[in-house]
Every structure is written in C-alpha cells, then in structure tokens.
C-alpha cells in the first residue's frame, strides 16, 4: 500500500550536487518504489545526460515534469497563524490519519482551486487512484489517494474539514472507532445518519452537562 506523503523539492541537483539557482528550470522525476513514490530533482544537464528520452522506460517511472526553482523565503511563516487549508493538509499527511482521508482529499481540491497545488500526475495503485500534486511555490510533492467519496459521504467530510479548520487537528487521545485498527472487518464504514428525534423529544429536559464528553480545556 502506498503511503501518503509530502516530499520537498531539493535545493541542489540530486545528480551532480550543484545548488539550484534562483529561477532555474529543474526536472522532477517520480518513481514508484513500492512503499512510496520517490522524487528525484535534477538540473537540465543531468536530465539530458541521465534521463532524457529514456526516463519513461525506466523501472517504476511514474511521471516527469519541469518546474522553476525558487529559494525558500528568508523568514518562516508566522507560527501562531490560524490553521489554513495548507497547514492542515500538511499535518494530516504527516500524521497518516486514515479517518481523515476524505478531508485530505477535499483540502487538496480546495488548494488546487486556489491554484496553490497543481495535479502533476495520476496513477492507479491496487485499484485506487493516486493524485500527485505539486505546490506551485515550494515545489513540495503531495501524494494523495482518491478516497472515491460517495455522494452520501460528502456532508460528513465537509463537516470534518470545517471542524478541522476551526479547531485544528487534535491529538488522537480518544479512540473514536474501536474498529479502526482492524481493516479486515467487513463492517460497512460509512456511518448511517442518526434517526430523527422522536416526536416531542425536544421538549425533554437537556441531558446532563457531562454527557457531551467535552469539557473546556
Ligand atoms: Zn545536475
């Protein structure tokens, strides 16, 4: 199974070791190395010498594209800024949280619409579509599986995304679903919507405050 991942653009050619210059055109070649896609960033000369025409015949070749190198910004972004779609996507990918697979996909689509990510390649792994996005500025490559969302899952995924953007990614202290650890079960994973409240239920006294299970900090 391919892992989700983010791979940063190299700052030096991985063929000859020379530092990339500002605005230099570089070549990214993506190879499938079983557990993950592995990117290789090389300068024009190394591309011509080592890859060139034959790259797509190499074992495991997935994709190739060119981009323009830009050095990272001198000042790191403000660490206390609010969670954005991009910071959230990075955290979700780094944490490998399969329960947020839908959110990961939706966030990637949001960033694609904002033109921050561009689809560079698509591949099918074990019957599942994998999308390879490149960040237009940093050149980071995001490998994201298409969760093949069904129409009836969209609402809960949208809710998950909204909740994550509002509250950030909480440490997984509470095992939300005990079955999450055993993917072998044939139990359908999609949660059925809760039944409508019985007539008159809203007139009952509210439940005890402790029932919600969430206490402020
Ligand atoms: Zn080189």
Outline the structure in words:
It is a single chain. The protein is an alpha+beta fold. 21% of the residues lie in helices and 22% in strands. The protein has helices at residues 44-51, 85-95, 101-113, 154-167, and strands at 5-7, 25-32, 37-43, 61-68, 117-125, 128-135, 141-145. A hairpin with a 2-residue loop joins strand 5 and strand 6 (128-135). The two termini are 38 Å apart. It binds zinc ion. The site of zinc ion has 8 residues, from strand 3 and helix 1.
How do you describe this structure in short?
The protein has 217 residues and is of the alpha+beta class. It is 21% helix and 22% strand.
Which cofactor or ligand species appear?
zinc ion
The helical percent reads 10-25%
**What is the end-to-end distance?**
38 Å
Mean pLDDT: 79
Query: What are the segments in which pLDDT stays under 50 over at least 5 consecutive residues?
Result: 174-192, 195-217
Major sheet strand order: 1-7-6-5
- How many DSSP-defined strands? 7
How many domain modules? 2
């Amino acid at each position: 199974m391919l892992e989700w991942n983010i791979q940063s653009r190299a700052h030096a050619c991985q063929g000859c070791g020379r530092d990339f210059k500002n605005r230099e055109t570089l070549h990214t070649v993506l190879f499938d190395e079983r557990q993950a896609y592995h990117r290789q960033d090389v300068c024009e000369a190394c591309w011509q010498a080592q890859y060139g025409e034959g790259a797509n015949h190499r074992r495991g070749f997935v994709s190739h594209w060119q981009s323009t190198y830009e050095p990272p910004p001198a000042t790191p972004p403000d660490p206390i800024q609010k969670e954005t779609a991009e910071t959230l996507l990075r955290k979700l990918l780094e944490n490998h949280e399969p329960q947020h697979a839908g959110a990961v996909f939706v966030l990637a689509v949001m960033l694609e619409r904002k033109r921050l990510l561009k689809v560079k390649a698509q591949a099918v792994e074990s019957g599942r579509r994998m999308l390879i996005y490149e960040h237009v500025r940093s050149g980071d490559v995001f490998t994201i599986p298409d969760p093949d969302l069904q129409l009836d899952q969209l609402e809960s995924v949208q809710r998950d995304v909204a909740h994550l953007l509002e509250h950030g990614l909480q440490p997984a202290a509470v095992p939300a679903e005990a079955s999450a650890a055993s993917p072998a079960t044939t139990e359908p994973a999609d949660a059925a919507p809760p039944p409508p409240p019985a007539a008159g239920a809203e007139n009952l006294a509210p439940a005890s405050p402790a029932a919600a299970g969430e206490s402020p900090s």
